[in-house]
């Protein structure tokens, strides 16, 4: 339900608490960590990030392929305003 997400974000802004990262920000952080030499250890987390970007990710997909698809999706999408 998109309305619930919007209300949660609005409540966080008005109360002064820190907002949770958006799906786009999570994907950017994942790619930045990998580019800095990190190794993604949790394939479920990588798949979750990819799915929230709108990618269809089979459970059997290699993590490396999913990361490559996330990179393409980040280049294709503009950061949320």
Task: Report on this structure.
The chain has 81 residues and is an all-alpha fold. 63% of the residues lie in helices and 0% in strands. Helix 2 packs across helix 3, helix 2 crosses helix 4 and helix 3 runs parallel beside helix 4. It is elongated and about 40 Å long. It starts with a helix and ends in a 5-residue tail after the last helix.
What's the gist of this structure?
By secondary structure, the chain is mainly α. The protein has helices at residues 2-15, 23-35, 43-52, 63-76. Helices cover 63% and strands 0% of the residues.
What's the structural blueprint in terms of helices and strands?
Layout: H1 2-15, H2 23-35, H3 43-52, H4 63-76
Helix pairs in contact: 2-3, 2-4, 3-4
Salient structural properties:
single chain, 4 helices, 81 residues, mainly alpha
Number of strands: 0
Q: Measure the end-to-end span.
A: 20 Å
User: Main beta sheet: strand number and arrangement?
Assistant: none
Structural class: mainly alpha
Radius of gyration, rounded?
A: 14 Å
Detail the poorly predicted runs: none
Query: How many helices does DSSP assign?
Result: 4
């Amino acid at each position: 339900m998109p309305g619930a997400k919007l209300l949660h974000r609005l409540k966080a802004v008005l109360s002064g608490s820190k907002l949770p990262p958006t799906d786009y920000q999570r994907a950017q952080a994942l790619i930045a960590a990998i580019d800095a030499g990190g190794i993604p250890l949790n394939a479920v987390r990588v798949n979750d990030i990819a799915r929230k970007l709108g990618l269809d990710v089979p459970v059997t997909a290699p993590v490396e392929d999913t990361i490559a698809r996330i990179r393409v999706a980040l280049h294709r999408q503009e950061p949320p305003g």
